[in-house]
Amino acid sequence: HAQANTFRIGLILPMTGQQASTGRQIEAAARLYMAQNGDTVAGRKIELIVKDDTATPDVTKRLAQELIVNDKVNVIAGFGVTPAALAAAPLATQSKTPQVVMAAATSSITEASPYIVRTSFTLPQVAVVMGDWAPKNGVKSVVTLVSDYGPGNDAEKYFTERFQLNGGKVIEKLRVPLRNPDFAPFLQKVRDDKPDALFVFVPSGAGAAVMKQFLERGMSKAGIRLIATGDVTDDDQLNDMGDGALGLVTSHHYSAAHPSAANKKFVEAFQKANKGMRPNFMAVGGYDGMRVIYEALKQTKGQGGGDALLAAMKGQVFESPRGEVLIDAQTRDIVQDVYLRKVERKDGQLYNVEFDVLKAVKDPGKAK
Ligand code: DHB
């Protein structure tokens, strides 16, 4: 009967609180994917169950438990922040339920359960690209400023290691609390340190506050450049950052301005379905996560057991709105192109315009 035939995806996201833009973007992308590809796959009706974990790991854990035990979901997905992804991992392992991480980006997450597959990115993957670019482009000394948790620590470690390998000097490493950060005292320290550049990682949704304070405190006038991972120039916020953001160079895996036919189609459809909201890198992680789930269900001919689904997720190669991607069968992590981008005004709007690319970058966190 219809109930038993339903294939359920439990989508756990921060729909409220500091990380709410991540939830909003990923839910919209997942619904777009379903609208474009139908809600029946290999004879199974697809049901998406969205739950708000407010990015609080205890809540994530409870919701994952309820979804697996009560709702009998076939897959859990989403996970806006690293602590949430890690909180659900043991439940994925115990119940043999595939866990598709669409957002969280600390390298070690995929090692927390053999049932995890990631469609977002890793901080080491994008930070090393900036560590190569900066010293070749006039940045000889830096101070780093990162949110003090998994992805920030990864960004700091992999950026500074690569930067130093290229002869750069790291003057100081600063870490700000994840919750309600006050950047002012840290930026004062940076002014005193007088580096060529400040390297920043903050999670999606926090970039605008950093930009604002960086400009207000006259850092550019003091001759200090800003460099960052693309989390700071998040497409969800970039257009409201103002001309102060012009020229800012970041490294990341997705820009809404990525010049491919597939991306143009994606951005247009996403904006049409969401009152003009521009998709960011979180949306792409969610869209591609749904693709990985749909394709796995097709390959297993609708059977949908955890181990079979997982096997069918490994090794998928496809064209994402970001470019060609691969789900590495060994690591279950995503291999993708990483771009250098510069904030420019295009058709009256601010965009991250790609000007260079490193092809098929694996997570450097797994290479050891
Ligand atoms: C994570 C969250 C983000 O919003 C982001 O941009 C990168 C990483 C995380 O918690 O893993």
Query: Which fold does the CATH topology of the largest domain refer to?
Result: Rossmann fold
Derived from helix and strand composition plus strand pairing, the structural class reads: alpha/beta
**Ligand species:** 3,4-dihydroxybenzoic acid
Low-confidence stretches: none
Net shape: globular
Q: Give the name of the CATH architecture of the largest domain.
A: 3-Layer(aba) Sandwich
Assembly type of the shown chains? single chain
Question: Radius of gyration, Cα only, in angstroms?
Answer: 20 Å
CATH H level, superfamily name of the largest domain: Response regulator
Mean pLDDT: 97
Percent in strands:
25-35%
Span between termini: 49 Å
String of helices and strands: HEHEEHEHEEHEHEHEHEEHHHEEEE
Helix content: 25-40%
Q: What is the CATH class designation of the largest domain?
A: Alpha Beta
Number of domains: 2
Largest sheet: 9 strands, mixed
Quick one: how many beta strands? Answer: 15
Structural features, described:
The chain has 368 residues and is an alpha/beta fold. The chain is built from eleven helices and 15 strands. The chain has two domains: 194 residues, Response regulator (Rossmann fold); 159 residues, 3-Layer(aba) Sandwich (Rossmann fold), CATH 3.40.50.2300. Strand 2 and strand 3 form a beta hairpin. Helix 2 crosses helix 10 and helix 5 runs parallel beside helix 6. It is globular and about 65 Å long. The model has no long low-confidence stretch (mean pLDDT 97). It binds 3,4-dihydroxybenzoic acid. The site of 3,4-dihydroxybenzoic acid has 12 residues, from helix 6.
